[in-house]
Every structure is written in structure tokens, then in C-alpha cells.
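User: Could you check the structure of this?
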Amino acid sequence: MTKIGFIGSGMMAEAIISGMLKGGFLAAEIWGADPESKRRDHMEATYGIQVTDDNRRVAANCDVLVMAVKPQYFSAAASGLQPVLTPGHRIISIMAGVSTERLEKELSCDSGQEPVLPVVRVMPNIPAMTRMGTTCLCAGRKAGPLDVELARMIFLSVGTVTNVEEYLMDAATGVAGCGPAYVYMLIEALADGGVMMGLPRQISQELAAGMVRGAAEMVLAGFGHPGELKDKVCSPGGATIAGVYMLEKSGLRGAVIEAVKAGVEKCRSI
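Assistant: Sure, the predicted C-alpha cells are below.
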């Protein structure tokens, strides 16, 4: 049985674990490590997985390690793991901005030797919790087809997986990894607008969130380019085009593009 250990059990790791369990993985197959006792208690009580504060214990019990710490803590975590890593370990990283080259170097079995561990770098997003996540994936130079397929299998259980070249991973992070926050802001703003115009908060929020889900599904189902679909909603002299005009006047497109750019630049600076 392949056992999967998460080095770090924060919100993104929790979203993936939650989705994996809903997608057919067993709690007995999953371990997690976290330095905070409240976080460990929450993960164990909520998901029934094995949780510890010892990264090495996770490595000793799992053959797949998902690096889910904040990027600034990676080197410290890697240094602690390196003495117990074996050629049988496979590495999956969800850390933004950490290259496969760096992962291979800092998570090699023997310091100073040619890296031997297969590494797959992925960028999931928070909707993995509902099994509607979007994951981007690229392979390190030592990762073979079976290593890539294992990573794909894990993340297909929580949504869709798209292969990208590594030089595009930061850009993909700026869109798919950071993007849910921007969509949540849009949903909140739409709901606020509905409340301002008299709708009860709960109804307005349900309408806004449901509308976003349905509109996105039409794009994914191939009903047309987003611009084309927007035009279909805008009747001449109608309510929608009046709203679109206000969004254009307020600089919505430019603000969103700048948000993506800022996220990508932050990834590149890590």
C-alpha cells in the first residue's frame, strides 16, 4: 500500500487531504506533520489520519512525501528530512516558487551526491477541498512516467490536472493558485451589491456563487470564448451592458491582470 505523508498540514494540505478522502483514498494511507498541536488535533479529529510533529516519523512511514510547508521553511524541513530519505522515497511539492532543481538538490539522499529522488512539482488550489480543484504539474529530471502518474492520480482525485513546462509554473500559480481569492472577492462584491439593492444576504450570496459556478462551467464546456459569452448576455440598451460599462470604467480588467502579475512576481522572488 502506498502511503502518502504531508510535510506541513496547513490549509492547502487540508484541502488536498479532504478531497483525497472524498475521492476514495483511505485515512490509513495518509500521514501529516505539523508543529502546532491545535493543527494536529484538528487534522486527526476531522479526517482520522495519522498526525505527528516529527517530519522524520512521517518519512519513516510513508514512501511518498508531499512537501506542503511554506517556501521560506523548506530548507529547514529538507535538512531535517535528508538523513532519513531513501531511494524508495518519491517527492511531490506544492510549494510556490520552489524549483524542481532546488527540490532535487536539498532532498537528495546523500549530501553532495547526484540527486536520486524523483520529484514532481504541482500547484493545486483550494477548491481541491470540494474535489473541484485545478492543479498544474511538471516533472523533475529524475521523475519517470510512474512517478508522474502517481502525482496525477492523487490530484485527479481532487479535480483536474494540467501538465505545464516548469518555466510556466509561476504564471500558472498566478492564475490558478491565487485566482480563487480573486473570485471569492468577486462573489462577495456581487453579494454586497445584491444586499444594497434589497436582497437578503444569504439569498444574494447563493445567487452570486451559483452564477459564478454556472458561468465557469459554460466556458469549460466549450460554449464559447468568455468575451463571446459576455456579448450574448448583453442585450442592446439593457441592464447587463450598463453594468459592463461601469466595470470597464472602473478598470476591472486592468486590476485583475495586475493582480495576476503581482502574484507571479511574488512567486519568482521566493
